[in-house]
Amino acid sequence: MPCLLTLRHVDYTGALRQPRHVHDALQISMLLRGGVEEMVGRVSHEGAALHIATKDSGLAHANHWARGRSRLVRLEARDESLGHLAAADAAPAWRWRFDPVAIRAFLRLASRPDGTEVSADAADCCDLLAALVARPVAHDARTPPIWLAEVVRDLEASWTPTLDTAVLAHRANVHPVYLARCVRRWYGVSVGDLLRRQRLRQTVAQLATSRDRLAMVAYRCGFADEAHCSRSVRAALGVSPATLRATMAV
C-alpha cells in the first residue's frame, strides 16, 4: 500500500522564535510568503518565497520567522524518510534551496485544501520526490576549486541584470572562456544557466514582496519586457506571474 502524505498550510506571525525541537514525521516544506532562518546544529540557512526544505523525523532544529506573516505548505508523513519514499541511497542534506524543478512540482500540490492526503505514488508527488533527490551529473570527482565556489557565491549574492560572464571572470581574474569551462566541468551547467536561475529567484522575490506591476518587476529584473518575463516564469515554474503572485499571497 503506498504511503499517504498529508498536505498542511501553516502560518507563523510576529517574528516568532521557536527553540530547538524535533518532529515525529518527515516534512517537505515550501515557503509561500515571508521568510525564516533555520538552524540545525551550528549551521543555519535562510528560506524565502518558494524555497523548499526537507527534514526527516528526529532532525533537531530551531527557527526564527520573519516579521509579519509567513506561510508555508508542507507535506508530512509519519514513519517515513525521504530516502525511503524516493528509493534513494541517501536523502539530500538539509537546507533551504531554490530549485525551479522542485518548485514547479510542489506548486501543483500547493493549491489543494489543508488536510488533503496525497499518495506518494501519485504523479505530482512522484515528480516532487524525484526532483528533491536528483543528483547533478558528476563531471569531476573532486570538489570545485575555492576560487570557483567563491565566484558562484558572488553571483548569487551580488546579482544584477547587468552581471554577465565577463564581469564575473574579471572579478576572479580569469579569462571568460576559462570560467565558462570550469563552471560546466564542476557544476554541469553554463554560466548563463546560473545567471538565469538567479534572475528567476529575484523575480519571485519581487512578486512575493511588492505590489508593483509586472512590467516594473520585469524591468528591474532585466527582462526585455513584461511578455518576456511571463514566458520565462511560466516555462520555469509552470504558472503565470499573476497566478504565482496570487498563490504566494494566500
Q: How would you portray this structure in words?
A:
The model has no long low-confidence stretch (mean pLDDT 91). Helix content is 42%, strand content 22%. Helix 4 packs across helix 5 (165-172) and helix 5 (165-172) crosses helix 6 (176-187). The two termini are 33 Å apart. With 250 residues, it is α+β, with helices and mostly antiparallel strands. The strands form two sheets. Strands 6-3-8-1-9 form a five-stranded antiparallel beta sheet, covered by helices on one side. The protein is built from ten helices and nine strands. The protein is globular.
Note the topology.
Layout lengths: L3 E10 L3 E5 L3 E9 L2 E5 L2 E5 L4 E4 L5 E5 L3 E10 L3 H4 L14 H11 L6 E3 L3 H11 L12 H12 L7 H8 L3 H12 L3 H19 L4 H7 L5 H12 L3 H8 L2
Helix pairs in contact: 2-3, 4-5, 5-6
